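User: My collaborator sent over this chain with a note saying "see what the structure looks like." That's all I know about it. Can you take a look?
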Amino acid sequence: MALPDSVTTCLSQPVHYAICKLGFEKTDTYDINNILSENGEVYWQAVTEHVCYLESDQSVDYIKSIRSLGPVCESVNLYFKSLTKEQFVIQYASWFHWTNCTEVFLEVFDVLQYTQATEVALGLMKLTSCLERALGDVYLLKGNDCPFLLRDLLASEQLADVFGRAVMNVLRVFIGSPHGLNLRNVLWHGFASPQEIPAKYCAMLLFLTTGLGQLLQTYLLQTKGVLVHRPYVIFISLEELDAFPGKYLNNEILSIAEELVKMSSFVLKIMLPFWIAALTAFKQSRYADSVILLLPQLEVGLRLLFTTSNKCPNRLLTAESSALYTTFDEMLAKHLDNEEVNQLPGVLEEPAMASDFLWDFLNHREGPRIRDRLSHGEINLETFPREVANQIVGFAITILCRFSDEDMFSLKEHVVIKPLMNCASCYRSRFHPISQLKKQVLECMKSIHLWAELPTVPEEEVQKIKGLEGNSEADSLILMISEIISQLQHYMPQNCCSSDDLINSVLTERLLVGLCDTRICTLYSPRPVLEVVAVLRRISAQCHQVSQQVIAGAGLRYTQWINKALRSRQRHNYGRMLDSIKFLSPVLRLILLLITLELVSVHSVCKKNPFGYQQYLKFLKSVLQYTENLVTYTSPEKNKWDETMELTKKTLIKLRKICDRKLMLMHLAT
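Assistant: Without extra context I'll predict from the sequence alone. Here is the result:
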C-alpha cells in the first residue's frame, strides 16, 4: 500500500495547473469598479467579456477564460475583505434570498475574512450545493424534471433563458464542466487538499451568486413569475439508521480519533486538516459540516485502498475531462470496468460490513443517500440530524482503527472503541431490496394480526341473514391451506408445527421473525435474484394493502350494522366479508411465509437452476396477479367477496400442484 505521507497531491498535473496556477499567471490589478456599481449592482457584460471562446466551434475556451478571470477573482476577494460584516449584509444579503440559504452565504463571507484553508474549502462545498439547489428551482420556472447533474443543469436552455447563455458560461468556468476548474466535483470527491483551493475562487462564486439574484429579480418582475423552493428532504425513521449509537461517540472517543487520524494509513497526510476539522465540527454540534468534511475523505481513503489493491495507482489522481473519476460507485462495484474482480473488498477486514454500510448510506435508492442529497443541496444544513452524523463519524472511526499501525492493536481493544468495533462487526444491510422485503413482510404480518381485534357481530346474527349460505366453501379453502403447509414442513425449522392446528402453529409472526433473521448475503446480488425480490416485494405490498382495506372495510360495516344503516343487500355482502376474512387471513399469512422461504434460498436457486428459476418467476407473477386482483375485489368501491373466494380457490389449487411437482424455489435450492 502506498504510504500516505508520500502522496503530495491527488490532482493530476493538468488539473493542478488549472486550479493552482493558471488563474495567477496574469498579475495585473483589476479595478473592482469595472464590474460593480456603488450600490452593489454587478455589471455582467464586464464579467462575461472575460470568457473566451474557441474559433473552431465557439465553445468556451476554458484555459484562456480561467487565465483571464484570475485577476477579476483576486479583485473581488480583496474587495470583500475590505468590507465589514455589517456593510456586506446591508449591501448584499437581500440578493441571496433567492437561494433560500442566505445564512450559508453570509457564513462564507465570514470565512473569507480569515482565509483558513479548510474552512474555505468547506464553505465552497456548502456554497456550491446550495447554489445548485437554487438554480434547480429556477430551472423549474421554465421546465420539468430538473437535471440531476450540475453540468447538465448549467448547460440547459431553461437557465440560459432566465440568466443568459453568456452568464451561464461564466459559471461553467468555475463549476459544472470537467473542462473548467470543476471546483464542486474536485472537492466533493475528495481530490483537493485544503491548500489547493484558492480563496479567490470562493469569493468569486459568492459574488456571482449576488449577480444571479439581481438578474433573477429582473426576470421575475418582467414575467410576473414566482420562484418556488422545493421542500428539503427530511430523514424519517431515524431509528433505522442507528448502526452506531450516539452514546458511544463521546468526547473521549473523539479525542482518541484525533490521534488515530495522525497514525492511520487510511489518511493521506495532505488531507489531515479535513479530518481534524470534521471531528471538531462534530464536537461543536455542527453535524452537517462534520459529514460534509468526512464524506470526501472516506472516498479518498477508499480510493487509496482501491488503486493500491487493484494495481492502478494513477487512478488516485483526478481524471482528465476525457475520463471518469474513480468514485464510490466504481469502488463499491464487484468488477472493474475491464471485467476483472475488484480487489478492494478483500483488503477490507470485514468487506461485507464496510461495503453494506456504504451501499446503505450512499447508494441504495431507499437509503438516506447522504452524499448525493448533501452535495446537491437537498438537505437543510441548519437542521441536519445528529443521528445521521453519528453513523458517518462512527463508521469513519472504525475504518481508521482497521487501518492503524500494528502497534495500535491495543487501541482497537480499548474499552471506549471496542463497542464501536462491535457495532461494525454486527452490521447488516438495512436498505438493500432484500432487507426492505424482510421489513415489508413483518409489517404486513403485524397488520394481519390486527384482524383478530376487529369488531364483529355475533355469528348467530350473521347466520340470520336471509339467503346466506353456510361456511363450507370457506372451510374447504382453509383445508387446502393446511395441506400446503404440510407440504412445506420440510423447509421450515423443526418444532414449529402442530398436527392439531397447522395454520395457527405455523403461520405466526414468531416464525416469520425467525426466518427474516436469517443472514442473507446482499452484497453484489445478481440480476436474477433482484428480479425475484422485486416481484416478491410487489406481492408483499399488495398483501399489505388488502389487509388495510379489510381492516377499514370491516370497521365501517360493523358501525353501519350497529346503527342499522345497512340495506338488505349490504347486510348480505357484509356477511360474505366476514366469511372471507376467515380464509383470507391464513391465505395472506401463507403467502408471506412463502415469500420468506423463497428469500432464504433465492441466491442458490438462481445460481444452480436458471431454468427452474424462470419457471418459478412465472409462477410468482401469477401470485402477484392474484394479490393485485385481491386489492381490487376487497376495495370499498368493489366489495366483491364471492369473486374473492372463487379467485382464492383457483390460486390455492395452482399452488398445491406446484408444491406437488417440486418446482418451489426453495426445493430447487436443496
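A starting point for your reply to your collaborator: Residues 13-223 form one domain.
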